[in-house]
Amino acid sequence: SQNVKILKMNGYCESTDVIMTCNINNGRALRNNTVIVVNVTLDGSTLIGDQLVITAQLSSSGKEIEDADNRHTHAIELKRFSEVDVRGLYNPSYFDIDKQDGTSIIKSKLIVENLGPSNIQNTTVSVLIPETFDNGARSCPLIEAVKSVKILNGEQEFTFSSSPTTHSSTSQSNLKPFNESTHSNLDFLRNKQEVILSCHQAYVRCRNVTFFIADFTPSPQIPLQIELELDVQPKALLKLFPDEDNTLVSLFVTVDFVHAQTEIHKSTQGSIVFYRTGSGVPMWVYVLSVLLGALIL
């Protein structure tokens, strides 16, 4: 048996620990073919293991012809499942690489929410930051350096480790393309061909920032907040673009839950966008995009 909390039961029932006792029909005899329904609501947040076994037994002072049918055991299969939403906020978040020289500092915040229904317990969280693109034919830096990291869950701050990794992420992550986002000031980019880069691709080398979390509860009011300060050289990404300026690159920082016992479905929105405007777009459009990006944080 499991130490599961009973949240709600019939008025003629009482419980102690994991045993619920009900006084059926106020102790009076039941007529033939009488059906009594006993309702119980359990708190599933503390359940562990693969199944919950419930045994119901009817005790009577009368003489039973067939006592065996007064006992019933039912096993409920347990499955832990959670929806996780990851939102990346970047300042600045858009770069016209034809007009951006030198190194830029990006202040970013990843907001990770467990939308439930299950807790995510005793798992390592992996923050994967794309550092280098190398497919054999082309190679260039993506994120030049990770200058600072701060990880919070409410008032709790986590210690972390950071190391380069050559292994791409194997988890499924729904990355929201730029064309599905709402940025009216950048509508001129929607006709461009989008290339999505993240650590889910084998030709992207990454930095892996990891930390351990004992219990990540479904609480939108207390999300995980991962604050990063990143260095990037937009001009270095010229190698990713063909001679034409009809391509934009969306660069995603992603979050994985390693060896989690809970089945997790993630969606990730928010990326760093690199593009070329050439001579067809006035400078004020670029300036406006950077200013609006600053309002995100």
Automatic annotation (TrEMBL):
Compositionally skewed regions (Low complexity) per UniProt: 159-173
Entry's Gene Ontology BP terms: cell adhesion mediated by integrin; cell-cell adhesion; cell-matrix adhesion; integrin-mediated signaling pathway
Domain of life: Eukaryota
GO molecular function terms noted in the UniProt entry: integrin binding
GO cellular component term of the entry, any: integrin complex
Stretches the record annotates as Disordered: 159-178
Keywords: Integrin
Name the record gives this protein: Integrin alpha-PS3
Organism: Culex pipiens
